[in-house]
Write a structure and sequence with these properties.
heterodimer, A: 302 residues, ABC transporter involved in vitamin B12 uptake, BtuC, 13 helices, globular, B: 338 residues, alpha/beta, Rossmann fold, 2 domains, six-stranded mixed β-sheet
Amino acid sequence: MDLFGSILSVAFFAQVLRLFTPYYLGASAANFSERSGVVNIAIEGFMISAAFSFALFSIVFGNPFAGMFFALIIGILLSLLFALFTIKLKVNQIIAGVGFNLLMAGASKFLIVLIFKSSSNTSRFESFYQIPLLKDIPVIGNISGDYIILFSFALVFIGNHILFKTRFGLRLRSAGENPAAGESLGVNVRLYKLYGVLICGFLASLGGIWLASNQNTYSDGMIAGRGFIAIAAMIIGKWKPVNIFFACIMFAFFEALEILLQVSMPDFPTQIIQMLPYFITILVLIGFIGKTKPPAADGISY
Amino acid sequence: MNKNIFFFLLALSFMFFSCGKNNDIKNGSSTGTKVGLVFDVGGRGDKSFNDAAYKGLEKAKNEFGIDFEVIDPGDGSDREAALRKLAAKPDIGLIFGIGFIFTDDITKIANDFPNKKFACVDYSINPDNPIPANLIALEFKEDEGSFLVGAIAAMFSKSGKIGFVGGMESSLIKKFERGFIEGAKYINPDIKVLSGYVGVTGEGFKNPSKGKEIALTQYQNGADIVYHASGLSGIGVFEAAKEHKKYAIGVDLDQYNEAPGFVLTSMVKKVDEIVYITVKEFKENNFKSGIKTFGLSDKGVDFVYDNNNKSLITDEINKKAEEIRQKLIKGEIVVPAN
């Protein structure tokens, strides 16, 4: 098997994009929240709750779009709760995030036993039908026909535009950089923090929904730490949507490369490849690749 | 004030969490000697390993009215606590740990509770650590069962390439892989086996997204059958088979229903049988410690051949597979250890 041929193949490219999608949705989610000054490490938890509720409601209504609708509603309600703790009650944001992660992991497992009489997975359901015409493109059909993958691409531009080209984005960023200055100019800082947290809940939920839709089922632990990798990608991307895009592509590329090497070169120690993205994360964090500067008022209650 | 509300809610959420994790199921009235069991990663309802163990307990309960209690641990650290909790109950006499991941914990607890009996399925034997006198290590010859499905896969494959997806990279799962490769090479020495592992920790058994991506890579690189030994990650392998309209081989239990029409066969481990037998021996005061191995000869491992896959496995393939089975039982074929 020609390794370089495989890396350049469309199938490999498609795989990178599939691995990229949940990372980018999670990282963008975290970014919107942190840009408004609220550190949200509960991305993993939001993804878990969305993946589970998507599976649950898809089965209940027999329709994945209904499942997605309710999963997003639940995601937004939960982020309202998160906003209540972090913005209104000014709880330490890290502690609230840890609490949410534990709550979602526990609650989903509790409900899965209660509803599906299984401590590991829900029953199967029919997931999204793919977009007509686009899904018929050879080889990349399951990429171009997938609503959420297409959305996550659009999000690179939408996210960048909203954050840096609109009045809304400017005010959102002011809440994360210098809320006192923003408020002195009449910005309702807490409201913009709420927007940031809600957008975060929405996007993270979408990431979880995609993971469950890709398997036509929810199984316990299936998010497998992707929410935390997403946060790492956001930091490497220095809180900029386009940079985060490249950071997520990097994580996805190394993961796909690791799979490919395992399959095509059995003697290659793939742990080295598995390690690389984390190694790069550390390099970025200790400042080898330019300065990493979070929003100035990130994590501070206002 | 605000902080108090938060801590109250946080405490509430922890209670929620622990309810979900320690899902004790109590069964019936006591008849004296109860049996306790702690599940593996994946827990009850995995349609695989753990469900098989539960089935064995239920069979024992129906046949000679034993009472049992099971615990579904959430994460690694709960495993030891769950074993200890069951061992400490005066009415429980025999405690099962399901899965090789229990090896260290159950050895320790068996030493702490010398009056109780312990049984561990897939116990990983370590020559430096003697097995306590009150512990039975229940082993399967997964390599022999995998050898058989490997041979079947090689006979069925048209491309001359087959795949293997393992969960956690560990000596137990390597045993599946080795048997599978040897079996395939026995039929076709030139066959190529594309192998991949989901991870190096127990989490490798519950990451279906990665299992799917590995299987997709194998199918894209020409494999037409993929065998998995990866617990819940196998869900993704079946999804990949459906997507590519190719075939998958299930593990532990008959996994035909995971992807009807795309499951060639399954390498089954009769965990239910050995749990049942062990409880029976315990009940009859015949409990023997040490190592007990189940292989092809006592149907401890087997492959599925029934009405569901008759159309895929031709008579010719089945005849040849039976021939190989006999040779393995007689020792004419030996799966090399490592």
